[in-house]
Amino acid sequence: MSVEGRIVENQDEKKCTERLMVAPLLDWYAENARRLPWREDPKPYYVWVSEIMLQQTRVEAVKGYFARFIEELPDIAALAEAEEERLLKLWEGLGYYSRVRSLKAAACVVMEKYGGRLPRRKEELLCLPGIGAYTAGAIASIAYGQVAAAVDGNVLRVMARLLGDASDVGKESVRRDLARRLEDVMPKEFPGAFNQALMELGATVCLPNGKPLCAQCPVRDLCVACREGTWENLPVKAKKKPRRIEEHTVLLVETGDGFLVRKRPARGLLAGMWEYPAVCGKKGEEEVRKLFGLKDDAAGTVLPLGEAKHVFSHIEWHMQGYYVRMRELSPSFAKICFENAEFYDIIVDGFPAGCIPVGWERLRADYSIPSAFEAYRKAMEKLLASREKAQTVRGLERNG
Fold first, then answer.
1. 51 labelled catalytic
2. What is the maximum alpha-carbon separation in the chain?
3. Average pLDDT over residues 17-32
4. Distances (CA, A) of 148 to 51, 118, 120, 325, 374
5. One of 31, 40, 51, 72 is an active-site residue; which one?
6. What pLDDT score was predicted for residue 351?
7. Cα–Cα nearest to 149, from 194, 116, 112
8. Of 105, 126, 205, 387, whose CB is crowded by the most CB atoms within 10 A?
């Protein structure tokens, strides 16, 4: 048989497998679907918000965020009117903050162009900020019952293993081809359930890390990877470039007015978020003292808060943290703070421009600090609790 003949035969086998998987997959989903708030009440707005939150984030982590977000912003009109600072605070810890900015931008478009109702058609959804092919397919199928594929990483993995397909799933052409084929076999009565069944299978059975739970899979008898033991090699992904390593010293600086924080630039990594001061490179305790001009303990306190690491998509931050308490703000602070950021070399009221003192409780309640600094927030909480306990003991001793 010619190569062309084998390809045609293979395509026929794929089509047959794709048709045969539908019924057992839907039956399995009906019995095994996890109870999730956006599934219990699949309003278009709920589906939209949940799908955006679920990008790059585990389901268990999203549940609490989703509940708080919907309570605070129950509909598209409320989202469109929300102030950015409040949005970022609601999103704090989820990461990829451009997602929530796009949510608000899309909500404004929906209010202006569609009277506050998300459009039904996938083609119209794709025109909204932050909504790509996957999210548009999920909204159209789950919320509106439209025949529209929603191809995410879980679906790509399930289908690559099921069909023994070694195509590079990182290619957009592969995703588009799979979406087209899935729409050919998608049951018109249950498009949302079909899409969610594939996602659920990938999330709970055909696992991304570790051996898949093939014994629990409803389509294992159809699966090439299960039959041939090739699950470790599928799906195929082109190797990514190694992440760039950046070293930083993070400084939690307390003055008489509060802890110093600054807002990052409006563009780039963690755009518009608040952060603690930082300098390039990992500094030792004595280096930090010299940077702040602290010659002895009478001038101020420097305590190490440990090392931490945070991984972004293309960058890794390797950090060393310190708590710095100053009796009065050193003039040298403005020079060392953000030494690698040209935006903050202007002094306003004794502070680098954009850098302000905030009380700790208010900082926690109202300011969105990225999860990259979570280790230092926790370390500072522990340190403050210890200090409060010591002050209480001293007070009791004086009054004793």
1. yes
2. 97
3. 96
4. 15, 16, 11, 57, 39
5. 51
6. 47
7. 194
8. 205
Distances in whole angstroms, Cα of residue 79 to Cα of each of 41, 85, 230: 19, 12, 46
Give the confidence band of 356 by pLDDT, cuts at 50, 70, 90. confident
Is the same domain home to 33 and 61? yes
- Output the CA angle 17-21-23, nearest 5 degrees: 140
Q: Is residue 68 part of a domain?
A: yes
pTM above 0.85, yes or no: no
385 lies in some domain: yes
In a domain, residue 238? The reply is no
Q: Which residue has the tokens 């004595």?
A: 286
Interval 231-276: pLDDT, tens: 999 999 888 888 999 999 999 999 888 998 988 887 888 888 899 9
Tell me the CB-side half-sphere exposure of residue 174, using CA atoms within 13 A: 18
Q: Which residue has the tokens 């092919």?
A: 133
From the DSSP assignment, how many helices (H) and strands (E) are in the chain? 18, 9
Kindly tell me if the per-residue pLDDT of 63 is higher than 70: yes
- pLDDT higher than 80, residue 348: no
Q: Are residues 217 and 269 in the same domain?
A: no
Q: Is 262 within the bounds of a domain?
A: yes
Given the structure tokens 């690491």, which residue do they identify?
309
How far apart CA 148 and CA 154 sit, in angstroms, is: 16
Please name every residue paired with 251 in a beta bridge, in sequence order, or none if there are none.
322
Domain harbouring 225, CATH code: 1.10.340.30
User: What CATH code is carried by the domain that includes residue 256?
Assistant: 3.90.79.10
- Say yes or no: 220 and 262 in one domain: no
Do strands 244-255 and 258-263 pair parallel, antiparallel, or not at all (unpaired)?
Answer: antiparallel
pLDDT band at 375 (very low <50, low <70, confident <90, very high): very high
Q: Residue 340 pLDDT > 60, yes or no?
A: no
Domain range for 285? 244-399
Please state the domain count of the chain: 2
Name the β-bridge partners of 358.
259
Residue partners of 392: CB distance under 8 A and separation at least 6: none
- The residue type found at 21 is M
Radius of gyration of the chain (CA): 26
